[in-house]
Specification:
The protein has twelve helices and 14 strands. The chain is α/β, with parallel strands linked by helices and about 400 residues long. Helix 4 packs parallel to helix 5, helix 6 runs parallel beside helix 7 and helix 10 runs parallel beside helix 12.
């Protein structure tokens, strides 16, 4: 049999299970990071595609620039200005979702064995993309205001690192938002240690409370920050459309890599999205989504407060798609899922695959966006009941063992 390339991993990275759980109608799935089906601007997108096709423009069906439709790149550059980023269409590359931007950046920077820093925990899909390039991972632990910059500096002082991957706004999976001070510190460290920053921002617009912070890219003084955005969470995942913002020195070779990979993103999709953004108020649509998602998030947090045991630590996010839970003991959430919760028809993303170095197992990611409030409450009630039972049993067994030790 033909020997596959070394980059092909046969070990389970958790992605296959995640999509299987999210698409299984028999499960209450907190696993997938799916937008709500009812909130897609279906009529408006249909009109945008229909009007685009109705032009009869032959160029619509032809190859186009690898960089993507210029007028759409201009629109995304202007949206970046809201985050404090000075960019023009010349700084923007249109991609097949932000996921392609992750892959292209890794392809640009990583040779096998090269060091890179990720947040611990981090986005499972990014790790899947990075794995193909065989990096050496270093984890910077997450704190309540973003990654631990002191630990990051220790890593940079003692190891050779090519780039840092971060999700600063409503991080996947923790929901944490990086503080202003840490955003600035991250750029200072990148400048000091000659490192690239990959800033992934798919949830940036999905803020339920508080004021938006400037993007890390807004503090970039040496062209070290590559910023990613996506239509998947604010319009529709099926568009497979995202954008990458970078200075020319990095953008040109990334664009060459995209040309070799897929030539270009869909001309029809780019033109239709451009038409949608011209004819509709995207910010108004996002605000409607945020109102609905905030209600769902509150429903999950209230259910957690009601049904979860006190041993579970919970982060209450101010936006995004996820709530992260972690037990103060050593309950293996992967085994707990497989042995207990799946039989209860409840699914979530265990943390084991979200930590590429430590493989921390006592935590899980919960998604609330594509479920009804009633379903959220029922699922959390079941999950909380089983957590109470298992943690109580674990504590009881520990007490017995300690008593046995003390009497011997």
């Amino acid at each position: 049999m033909t020997q596959l390339a070394r980059r092909i991993k046969t070990t389970d990275n958790g992605l296959t299970d995640l999509f299987a759980y999210a698409s299984n109608p028999d499960l209450i799935s907190f696993a997938g990071g799916y937008p709500n089906d009812q909130l897609f601007p279906k009529a408006e997108l249909q009109a945008a595609f229909s009007d685009t096709l109705a032009t009869g423009d032959a160029a619509l069906f032809q190859y186009t620039s690898t960089s993507g439709l210029e007028s759409l790149r201009e629109k995304f550059a202007k949206r970046a200005e809201q985050a404090g980023v000075q960019a023009t269409a010349a700084n923007v590359l249109l991609t097949q979702g932000a996921q392609q931007g992750i892959d292209l950046t890794a392809k640009l920077l990583l040779n096998p064995g090269d060091g890179m820093v990720v947040e611990g925990p981090t986005y499972l899909g990014a790790l899947s993309a990075f794995d193909a390039y065989e990096p050496t991972y270093y984890e910077a632990p997450m704190e309540d205001d973003g990654l631990d910059v002191n630990e990051l500096q220790k890593i940079l002082m003692t190891h050779s690192v090519k780039f840092i991957y971060t999700i600063p706004d409503f991080q996947n999976p923790t929901g944490v938002t990086m503080s202003l001070e840490k955003r600035k510190a991250l750029v200072r460290l990148a400048n000091q240690y000659d490192v690239i920053i990959l800033e992934d921002t798919p949830y940036r617009d999905l803020r339920f409370s508080g004021e938006a912070l400037p993007a890390i890219k807004s503090f970039d003084t040496e062209g070290r920050v590559i910023m990613l955005g996506s239509c998947s969470k604010i319009l529709s995942p099926s568009l497979r459309l995202g954008w990458l913002i970078a200075d020319e020195e990095l953008l040109k070779p990334i664009t060459d890599l995209k040309l070799a990979s897929d030539v270009q993103s869909s001309n029809l999709t780019m033109r239709a999205v451009d038409r949608y953004l011209t004819d509709n108020n995207l910010d108004q649509h996002i605000q409607a989504m945020n109102t609905a998602y905030a209600t769902k998030k509150d429903a999950m947090m209230n259910a957690i407060k009601t049904y979860f045991p006190e041993e579970i630590h919970v982060v209450n996010p101010a936006g995004g798609f996820f709530i992260f839970i972690q037990n103060v003991g050593n309950l293996d959430m992967t085994q707990f899922l497989k042995q207990t919760m799946l039989t209860e028809n409840i699914a979530y993303v265990p943390s084991e695959h979200l930590f590429p170095v430590s493989n921390t197992k006592n935590a899980a990611r919960l998604n609330y966006t594509n479920l009804t409030e009633k379903t959220i409450q029922l699922g959390i009630q079941k999950l909380g009941g089983q957590l109470k039972q298992h943690l109580a049993q674990t504590n009881w067994n520990t007490d017995i063992q300690l008593e046995s030790i003390s009497t011997n």
